[in-house]
Amino acid sequence: MLQLVNAGHKSLADYASITARGLMDQIRRLAEPLRGKRVVHLSATAFGGGVAEINYTLVPLMADAGLEVEWRIIRGAEEFFNVTKTIHNGLQGNPQGLTEEQMEIFRRYNELNAAEFEDDYDYVVVHDPQPVSMIDHFPDSKAKWIWRGHIDFSTPNPQVMDFLLPSIRRYDAAIFHMREYVPRAEGLPPCYIWPPAIDPLAPKNMALSPEDAAYIVDQFGPDVERPLLTQVSRFDPWKDPLGVIDAYREVKAVYPDVQLALVGSMAHDDPEGWDFYNQTVSYAAGDPDIYILSNLNNVGSVEVNAFQVHSRAVIQKSIKEGFGLTVSEALWKSRPTVAGNVGGIVTQIEHGRTGWLVDSSEECAAACLEILADPGAARELALAGKEHVRRRFLTPRLLRDRLALFNRLVGRETTAKLDVIAA
């Protein structure tokens, strides 16, 4: 059997006072006919990245709503994850394609994982490209299979996309963050559009006082009496930490006391992460005011929370981004947020109203300078951003959408509005 992840326990009742009015009633109505149905989530890793963070909340909330839910992790060696990283980059526009040998490695590991999977569920939710072709080995499955793509598919490498399409066409439904991400291809299943969400009660997002945040940040070296800029993300060229360092250096020319924290995580399905981590350290050139931290420095969810809460500005200077949950995390904490004008970020930030959207290191620096020069005005934008997140990007809304889809896939229509692109 594939490895089972213990996602813990959560109660929907704890979210009632936080979410939009009426949402909990919708969830209860949608969950009632699904009580006892068996659901499994399949993904490549249980830590590092947005998929894992979402599942650690969504899986236990589904269980609290009355479904029988599991989350299982596929197996893979380094050769497999090297291939899936090439696929990930190709789907986000990298021109490097797949060799015949790489395609064979991908197929072989999906076959091996399928052999360890018991197909006795009502719904199978497959996350991202790594396990996408497991469905090829269950032609007579009675389950409803749903593929959830979490990255930016707007300008994919055609060869890589074409390699995955035969498997995607087998699914009963596919889910994307944005309409622009749906592949321009024939024969797709119905494609549903909804953004991901954050858990406002998770340790990463729970309320943390400024004093507690400063105490935690202080343990990692920054001077808590001086201004701090922070980016939280994987060490990945698409997140552009080198561009963030460039922006920081421009800001430091005006505010010499400013500091920068680059806080990331190292996931086992990202073999390139170490290489880019080392590039980032090298690019920082020993600057004592740049702090490059990760889970390997014991930076976990509470520490990330503290860095975001304590920062004068939170940055997410992505150049490609499926969604970028760190943006909603920062806005939920009422922090002035500067982010790349790409992908799902643009659904979270309205430039000049809830934050800053930037297209270059120079624009990123200019936004940070504006925040440091007028913190009162910057906080007004951040507070508007928090309300935007409360209405659209909290996990109970994501649960509502998923339950509505489960009902629809078995022919049970609901009043819940789902943005769908018909097959």
SSE layout:
Elements: E1 3-4, H1 23-31, E2 38-43, H2 50-64, E3 68-73, H3 78-91, H4 100-115, E4 123-127, E5 144-148, H5 158-168, E6 173-176, E7 191-193, H6 210-218, E8 228-232, H7 241-254, E9 259-263, H8 273-284, E10 290-293, H9 301-310, E11 313-316, H10 325-332, E12 337-340, H11 345-348, E13 356-358, H12 361-373, H13 375-392, H14 395-409, E14 419-421
Parallel strand pairs: 2-3, 2-4, 4-5, 5-6, 6-7, 8-9, 8-11, 9-10, 11-12, 12-13
Antiparallel strand pairs: 1-3, 7-14
Helix pairs in contact: 1-14, 2-14, 3-4, 6-9, 7-12, 10-13, 12-13
Q: Characterize the main sheet.
A: 8 strands, mixed
| Chain-averaged pLDDT | 94
Extended strand count: 14
Low-pLDDT parts are none
- Percent helix range: 25-40%
Strand numbers in spatial order across the main sheet: 1-3-2-4-5-6-7-14
What is the radius of gyration? 21 Å
- How many helical stretches? 14
Category by helix and strand content: alpha/beta
Distance between the termini: 33 Å
Shape: globular
Q: Tell me the fraction of residues in β-strands, as a range.
A: 5-15%
The helix-strand sequence is EHEHEHHEEHEEHEHEHEHEHEHEHHHE
